[in-house]
Write a structure and sequence with these properties.
- This protein is α/β, with parallel strands linked by helices and 473 residues long.
- The protein folds into two domains: 239 residues, Endonuclease Chain A (Endonuclease, Chain A), CATH 3.30.870.10; 177 residues, Endonuclease Chain A (Endonuclease, Chain A).
- The protein has 18 helices and 20 strands.
- It has an 18-stranded mixed β-sheet that branches.
């Protein structure tokens, strides 16, 4: 959901008070990065770092999941790529469940919250005061009353439509509520401090008892109440009255050692906002193996030299050999990402994008349309999702490298937002991603170059106008 963007644009364009320019950039990356000679990738297990022999056995099992990866070495190349870009150990022994749309995600989240014994850490961009938001608030208040410490980090711009009374009720019940980068026009107008309106916390993360975590693109709002392949609930219909469409999104449920990495990311965000000290709880319990998935949690922040999520995705696309399948809500690619997709298609990779046919942001939709022509000419296949608002942020490359998270393919996610993704390696999970992608393809309309080439000049003018704002969208 693109809440807060219009406010940002108005202040940036009319007041110019933030002192921000377009000098900030994205790193230049090349596929050679994945071909450098490096030591074997490190892998952490439930008991800590695995030995070289143990790590080799885990990774060899993953590489043998698909016949194609055995024959071509595709998995090994993506594994080297992951290590080259991130430098952190992979996490083995995880259970990963793919959750499609709000109903399935909310059921799983709600069950985890009700079962909480020690603490609940939630980080979200949007938390609406509607049927879904009230249900979550009541559950959090009830758990706090039971002695479970609840810590809530919410973005100021994303929750600006939520009445302050909603959060005051949570605070009064003992929930620790921290506002990320509070909106402060007075400080902006005076030019004091280092406050920057444009930096937002776009992450969606829930960690319960340090043992189970959820992440993806789903906010806490009734717009997600209805599944994207059915008519939806009464709450969803009311929330989606403007568009008449359900929201199509994807989340992950994770258990195992990677949950500790996600917990650390939450606590780092909390600390960076100078929030009150977190109550003493068992935030890092022992985490036994819960499955066989190898996962890497990747957080990005505008305070870092560059977005690790951007660097990892761009390099994975540049190294793709068979397929690049992306689903994304807000597609406003920078020139380097645009070139990586076009280059992949021109070297014979099956590049398919599923993008929104309708959206909640006309400006972002039109800015994305401005990139269609060069992609279509290069052989990229573009599909627009019908019957729902596409809000998922997923990628599956060569069937062995998959990611789900909060990151859109735009300047805002890569430069201005805090974002969170999980990368899951292996053909087993890649197969689940493929099935989900194919299901969305069946509900999408392909955009042909012939049709796009003949679009009216009025559409081209809208694209040009929107593209002027691409850096800030």
């Amino acid at each position: 959901m693109r809440r807060g963007t219009c406010l940002c644009l108005m202040l940036l364009s009319l007041l110019g008070v933030l002192g921000l320019t377009c000098c900030a950039g994205l790193p230049t990356l090349t596929p050679e990065l994945s071909r450098r000679a490096r030591p074997p990738p490190a892998v952490d297990g439930p008991g800590g770092p695995l030995s070289a022999i143990q790590a080799k056995a885990v990774l060899q099992r993953l590489s043998q999941q698909g016949e194609q990866t055995q024959e071509t070495g595709i998995f090994e190349r993506h594994l080297a790529l992951e290590e080259a870009i991130n430098g952190r150990p992979l996490s083995a022994g995880n259970a990963v469940e793919l959750l499609q749309d709000g109903p399935a995600t909310y059921r799983a989240m709600y069950a985890a919250i009700l079962a909480a014994q020690d603490h609940i850490n939630m980080e979200t961009y949007i938390l609406d005061d509607d049927e879904v938001g009230q249900r979550f608030a009541q559950a959090l208040i009830a758990k706090q009353a039971e002695g479970v410490q609840v810590n809530l980090l919410r973005d100021s711009a994303g929750t600006m439509a939520t009445p302050s009374a909603f959060f005051e009720r949570l605070s009064a019940a003992g929930v620790q509520v921290l506002e990320f980068n509070p909106l402060n026009p007075v400080q902006a107008l005076s030019g004091s401090g280092d406050w920057e309106l444009n930096q937002r916390d776009h992450r969606k993360l829930l960690v319960v008892d340090g043992r189970i975590a959820f992440l993806g693109g789903i906010n806490i709002s009734s717009v997600y109440s209805g599944g994207s392949f059915k008519s939806g609930s009464r709450a969803a219909k009311k929330a989606n009255a403007k568009t008449g469409l359900a929201w199509r999104d994807t989340d992950l449920q994770l258990q195992g050692p990677v949950v500790a990495d996600l917990q650390r990311l939450f606590m780092a965000s909390w600390g960076a906002q100078n929030g009150p000290a977190l109550a003493d709880r068992k935030y890092f319990p022992p985490l036994p193996a819960m499955g066989r998935a190898v996962v890497r949690a990747i957080g990005s922040s505008p305070d870092e030299p560059f977005s690790l999520i951007y660097a990892t995705l761009l390099s994975a696309i540049a190294s793709a050999e068979t397929s690049v399948h992306l689903s994304n809500a807000y597609f406003v690619p920078d020139p380097q990402l645009l070139k990586a997709l076009a280059d992949a298609a021109q070297r014979g990779v099956d590049v398919k994008l599923i993008l929104p046919g309708q959206t909640d942001s006309w400006l972002v939709l039109q800015a994305g349309h401005a990139s269609y022509a060069p992609l279509l000419r290069a052989g990229v296949k573009i599909f627009e999702r019908q019957g729902a608002i596409m809000h998922a942020k997923t990628a599956s490359i060569d069937g062995v490298w998959s990611t789900v998270g909060s990151t859109n393919l735009d300047w805002r996610s890569f430069l201005h937002n805090q974002e969170l993704n999980a990368v899951v390696l292996g053909a087993d999970f890649g197969g689940q991603m493929h099935q989900q992608f194919e299901r969305d393809l069946q509900a999408s309309t392909q955009i042909s170059w012939a049709t796009w080439r003949d679009r009216p000049w009025s559409a081209r003018l809208q694209e040009w106008f929107a593209n002027v704002w691409a850096y800030w969208l």
